[in-house]
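SEVERITY: medium
COMPONENT: batch folding queue
REPORTER: lab tech (J.R.)

DESCRIPTION
The queue accepted two submissions in a row. Attaching both inputs and their returned structure tokens so the on-call engineer can compare them side by side.

ATTACHMENT 1
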Amino acid sequence: MTHSKESGFTLIEVMIALIIIAISLTGITVLSSEASQQIIHLKDKTTAYWVAENALTQLLLGEQGFYLQPGEQHGNERIDTTDWVWRANIMPAPQATGVLKIQIEVGKSLHEPALSSINYYVNQN
């Protein structure tokens, strides 16, 4: 009697290996999707900060009909293909005579939470 020794994988071994690969690839796909969403969110926050800085400059220079008086002002700006909305709340600074506090919030609409906000203090004199 001669016994031939066959090498190779059984069907069950191949199926288990494929299941392990499928689970691994699913995990990698989920992680890359979450990373992509985080990158988009960080890009939006950075752009919103730029819009806030631009709005502050417009207020300080009195450009485009904006002025540095207590009250609330709104504006918008388009960067790339996204429309951004900003709201500036200008008020006397608490416990500081002759100083205005400028708080600017920026989002994709006035009804959504702000993606960025800045506070700035300026002397009225």
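ATTACHMENT 2
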Amino acid sequence: MEKYNEKITILIVILFTTIYSILRYNILGNVEWSQLPLYVSNKIFSFTAVILLSYMFSAKSIQKKKGLIVQQFSIIGYAIFFLIITHIFISILILNPNYFSKFFQDSGHFTILASLSMFFGVISTVLLFSLTPFFRKTIQEKSDLAKIIYSQFSKIFLMFFVALHLFFMGYKGWLTPEKWNGGLPPITLISFAFVIISLIINFSYFKNHEKS
């Protein structure tokens, strides 16, 4: 039953992010349908990963706070891992001024905002991979390193860096709602909201846990 629920959650999120992305960029926006396989799908992958990551960490904290049995969310965890890997590879393929002109100066170098976004994106990815079962097998479960990596504080740091990655990537577009395609908020803004909510939930649990 647990695995079934995870699959349903993943499918619902993918359905939402797919419809929203296509509606915002291909239907209401001016992005050609030929860009669906890479440019738009990349947004779907990253959007889905952020929502699932925020949901997973928030749900675990809520379950711990209420004294419930904490679900492992193994299927969602693997889904996040492969979504992020796919997002990284596609981003490498299309990271150029033709797709992301706002990221580049006339010299061809990254702007300061793009550099900061990429930096925090890399840090987030490294922290996320350290939480995967693949990495878990390489360290001792009860070692000091494992206690740090799998602590609530480490998860808060991860979500904080994800928030910074999203903020520096898209905050300028958040401030111009008149330019939003069909009045739909940017995906980075919605993703940022999910991460902030997750951060609040996790930080609340962390503070209560520290007092107890």
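NOTES FROM REPORTER
Residues 2-211 form one domain.
No errors were logged for either attachment.
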